[in-house]
Amino acid sequence: MKSTRHAKILELIKEHEIETQEELSEYLRKAGYQVTQATVSRDIRELKLTKVSYEHGKQRYTATTGNADPDMIEKYVRVFKEGFRSMDVAQNILVVKTVSGMAMAVAAALDHMDCDEIVGSIAGDDTIMCAVRSTEDAGKLMGRLKKLVGK
User: Fold this and answer.
1) What are the CA-CA distances from residue 39 to residues 19, 24, 29, 33, 79 (Å)?
2) Which of 68, 74, 137, 150 is positioned for an S-S bond with 117, CB 3.0–4.6 A?
3) What's the predicted TM-score (pTM) here?
4) Which residues fall within 8 angstroms of residue 80, CB to CB, at 6 or more apart?
5) Residue 133 gets which letter from DSSP?
């Protein structure tokens, strides 16, 4: 059941400009799936869906793949640069400060930017905490990201 629902979600986000979990839930219900908000939220995480901007500042869900195409990588880098304010490291924790409201988008961008040093991250409104494999990796990653934003 889950695999067919996941396939339907991927089909729906290709066919429609779905901006919210509520919209996605409604499309799924119309297609005959009885889902809760928690189920849709979990599906979005499992499918690694992300939001991308399209016309007039609106956003829509899109699927990402493990082998992201260059256009998508460029978009992730752009999101990172646009949201980035500063960063610091505390042993193996990388703390990234972002423009208010951008932490989740910047964290999603980091997840797709080939940052294998990051074990996991938590994003708030304007702060991301990334658990990095080692203190040495945290320093290397911080240097690489600073070069990316030109600092």
Assistant:
1) 17, 11, 12, 11, 27
2) 137
3) 0.56
4) 106, 109, 110, 113, 145, 148, 149
5) S
Q: What is the 3-state secondary structure (H, E, C) of the chain?
A: CHHHHHHHHHHHHHHCCCCCHHHHHHHHHHCCCCCCHHHHHHHHHHCCEEEEECHHHCEEEEECCCCCCHHHHHHHHHHHHHHEEEEEEECCEEEEEECCCCHHHHHHHHHCCCCCCEEEEEECCCEEEEEECCHHHHHHHHHHHHHHHCC
Residues in the chain: 151
| Separation of alpha carbons 10 and 112, rounded Å | 18
Q: Give the helix/strand (H/E) hosting 23.
A: helix 21-30
On the 0-12 / 13-18 / 19+ scale of CB atoms within 10 A, 116 is exposed
Residues 25-80 pLDDT 10s: 999 999 999 999 999 999 998 888 888 877 777 888 887 655 455 566 778 888 89
Give the residue from 97, 91, 96, 90 showing the smallest Cα distance to 115. 96
